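Running this now, will post back.
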Amino acid sequence: MCYNQFVTFQITRVSPLKASLVQSLTLAGYISLAGMFMYHANAWVGPINSWLGPILILTFFSASVLICGLASLAYPVWLIWDQKKVTEAIQVLLYTLLWLTLFFVLILLALPRL
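Update: finished.
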């Protein structure tokens, strides 16, 4: 049970395989949205021919790193910090890596057909 002065909630444990699948699907969804934004950014925003262009790209990249880090590390960190289950946290991370690798291979296989 997690207690906060504002919110009290209970985090239910799930199997490492299910947790990693949810994490991988979350990451794949965010990466898809970020990729669509990058693909269409020039049409939506227009060309930026000033020093603000690199700043926007680096800000977008930094935010993406933070979002992906939170999506992939929040549950394993909770397992280590609160539950003291290091091996299960490592399993979740490795399964997440395997799911993302599977998604990557599936996209590569579908790429010639797109």
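The chain has a mean pLDDT of 89. More later if anyone needs it.
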